[in-house]
Design a protein that fits this description.
alpha/beta; Elongation Factor Tu (Ef-tu), domain 3; 2 domains; 13 strands
């Protein structure tokens, strides 16, 4: 995001250095918040309920990615910030996870990133750690004169558990933990355009390399204000080898090429498959479309 700051659609102010944040009494949540799931939202609820300026500090890139580990992210940074705004957070400081930040002693992190912006309350889970080698904890924050509010843990809800559900194609379980349907968030790019010749033109969705994607299969969902039948896989009927994400938007006829598209996944319909003929493939797509019309958005 270019510039010193920007406002997401929901009105949240996005800043990139503590010096850009107006110093005022604040309640602050600190974390990556990948997925902005129900556990994170319990933290944000406590931040908002404090009555102080509701603020979050998040990190980009994900610290584990910066350290060389593979992480399948549940949201893009753009979507994470949108969801933070929807959760009632008014100001987000996006801290670059640089080697310098990685090696900050926790006392110095608290001084530079919390006291400098006026933090009076820090809201976090009981196991919250920060600073070099995760050496800082809630007790340290209290010794430094900050008031700590421990947000209730939601048993079984974590980014790791959501990734596991997605790997199994269980988008309903993922939605229960997220508090909303899992989303594929990418850009529409050129594809093979076979769907159009079959009577079901699809968009070809390109995701950022680090984003999570459910197990291969056919899903029902929603995109751009329309129900969507979504194919995730290699197109085995045509002998494909590369992963393709191809939503067919029902009752829609417009060009989405080059645009951002966010696709909610509501239900897994079936495995992907090869068919004995194109006629058999088209008949199955028609059944998938009808199943999509019957699908319902999963609740938390």
């Amino acid at each position: 995001m270019a510039g010193r700051e920007r406002r997401a659609a929901e009105g949240v102010r996005i800043l990139h250095a503590p010096s850009q944040v107006e110093r005022q009494p604040r309640a602050v949540a600190v974390g990556v918040f990948d997925g902005v799931h129900r556990g994170h939202r319990s933290v944000f609820d406590a931040v908002v309920e404090s009555g102080l300026a509701p603020t979050a500090i998040t990190f980009d890139p994900h610290p584990r990615i910066a350290l060389g580990y593979k992480v399948d992210l549940l949201t893009t940074l753009e979507r994470r910030l949108e969801l933070l705004g929807e959760s009632g957070i008014e100001t987000v400081l996006v801290a670059s996870f640089t080697p310098e930040l990685q090696h900050l002693p926790p006392e110095e992190f608290a001084e530079r990133y919390l006291r400098a912006i006026g933090a009076e309350v820090v809201v976090a889970g009981e196991d919250f750690r920060f600073g070099v080698r995760r050496s800082g904890d809630l007790a340290l924050l209290e010794r430094l004169g900050l008031r700590v509010v421990v947000a209730p843990e939601l048993e079984g809800v974590s980014s790791t558990a959501i990734r596991a559900a997605l790997a199994d194609g269980d988008v309903v379980a993922a939605a229960r933990m997220l508090g909303r349907p899992f989303e594929l968030d990418g850009t529409v790019v050129g594809g093979d355009q076979r769907g159009g010749t079959l009577g079901y033109p699809t968009a070809n969705l390109l995701l950022e390399a680090d984003l999570a994607c459910p197990g291969y299969g056919i899903y029902a969902g929603w995109a751009h204000g329309h129900l969507a039948a979504v194919s995730i896989g290699t197109n085995p009927h045509y002998g494909g080898t590369e992963r393709r994400i191809e939503p067919y938007l029902l009752d829609f006829d417009a060009d989405l090429y080059g645009r951002r598209l966010v696709v909610e996944l509501w239900e897994r319909l079936r495995d992907e498959a090869a068919f004995s003929s194109e006629e058999e493939l088209v008949a199955q797509i028609a059944r998938d479309v009808e199943a999509t019309r019957r699908a319902r958005r999963p609740g938390p």
